[in-house]
Design brief:
By secondary structure, chain A is mainly β. Chain A has strands at residues 4-7, 10-13, 19-25, 31-37, 43-51, 54-57, 64-66, 76-78, 87-94, 104-105, 109-113. The chains are: A mainly beta, B mainly beta.
Amino acid sequence: NAGVTQTPKFQVLKTGQSMTLQCAQDMNHEYMSWYRQDPGMGLRLIHYSVGAGITDQGEVPNGYNVSRSTTEDFPLRLLSAAPSQTSVYFCASSLVSSGANVLTFGAGSRLTVL
Amino acid sequence: SQELEQSPQSLIVQEGKNLTINCTSSKTLYGLYWYKQKYGEGLIFLMMLQKGGEEKSHEKITAKLDEKKQQSSLHITASQPSHAGIYLCGADANAGKSTFGDGTTLTVKP
């Protein structure tokens, strides 16, 4: 099992550029989410999805878009990158129907916006 | 919204020493999760606690959820360099969402 796969692992962008962080899981998990991790601020939820075709905003959604066209994929789009979006991004998934929300995380994507 | 406060923020211990990390919630916890993150990597699930008074152990790591379900502790016995990393507690919010503490960075000196 590959688990949760995130690409790219590292990315440098210039202010105003756009990009997509890819996330794929092969565990048939209903729930997928994107977090950003900044020093001293823990993990903050950006967007999440409870199933294909359903997405919702988390704690810090501004500047990010998501879509969930399949159960497996949950890409995160930055339409116009800003230096404040420099962070490490984690995608996570879980089988919520199991009664427990144990998250499986990807390895992370480190984004630098100049 | 539910907030989780972890203490201490960072911890440096000598190999072989015991240590405890605490996680305090602003609201009753219905699911408390402990994760570990090695530097530059993703988070790995350690343990889940759901019942007041529950205690779980895995190798030399023990986690407890107090009776009132508003605080959890993670205890490491006889720490080893392999225990080094960032420990985060997480809690169920709603609709499958999770909220996390800010993390505790553990350094184990050989």
